[in-house]
Amino acid sequence: MIRGFGGKEPKIHPSAFISEACYIVGDVEIGENSSVWPGAVIRADYGRITIGRNSVVQDTCVVHTDDYLHIGDNVSVTHGAVLHGHRVGNNVMIGINAVLLEEAEIGNFCFVGAGAVIRAKTIVPDESLVIGVPAEVRPLSPENRRRLEAPTRSYIANAQAHKREGHGTEISGSPG
User: Fold this and answer.
1) Which of 60, 132, 136, 176 would you call most buried, defined as having the most Cβ atoms within 10 angstroms of its Cβ?
2) What is the rounded distance in angstroms from the CA atom of residue 63 to the CA atom of residue 44?
3) Is the separation of the CB atoms in 14 and 34 below 8 Å?
4) Predicted local confidence at residue 170, as pLDDT
């Protein structure tokens, strides 16, 4: 379901795949070739949420903010993650059930492990591995850095296959 709120309508690029079983409301912008899967909630009733190109919000994720949240390009937000921070950079993988608390920021080319809890106002530098509860920041290995070159490639292809089969919400027009 896609709905406006407070005079703000979601703006979704026509190439995006939006599951008919997700909920998107308010001041949301979703970029080219991005996808939102069943059970995901993107709720921009308090502040603006932008999601870049080629990014994926997988099943049962919650994306919300008190003021703003920018999710970059080539970001994979995997199953059950909760994002309530300010920024997720480009080429980032957010692991299953990871939590990003208020005003936290994740740099570019970061790998956030499954179940990690990133405390409020934490700033994670570029090319970091973030794991644990509470999350600890470590340097990213060259192998994991390579994995983040195209972390959403398979989901982009899968989303387009779903669209070809008539799945998802029909999007017309273009953002902005």
Assistant:
1) 60
2) 8
3) no
4) 79
Residue 149 tokens, joined: 């070159």
Percent of the chain with pLDDT over 70: 97
Domain 2-164 has CATH 2.160.10.10: yes
* 7 touches 27 (CB < 8 A): no
**Rounded distance, CA 4 to CA 11, Å?**
10
- Rg of the Cα atoms in the chain: 15
CA dist 107 to 88, 110, 133, 149, 162, Å? Answer: 6, 6, 19, 14, 31
User: 176: burial class by Cβ within 10 Å (0-12, 13-18, 19+)?
Assistant: exposed
Given a cut of 50, the residues of the chain with pLDDT beneath it are 174-176
Please give the backbone phi and psi of residue 73, each rounded to the nearest 5 degrees, phi first: -85, 150
Which amino acid is located at 91 in the chain?
Answer: N
The tokens for 22 are 């997700």
Q: Confirm whether pTM is higher than 0.90.
A: yes
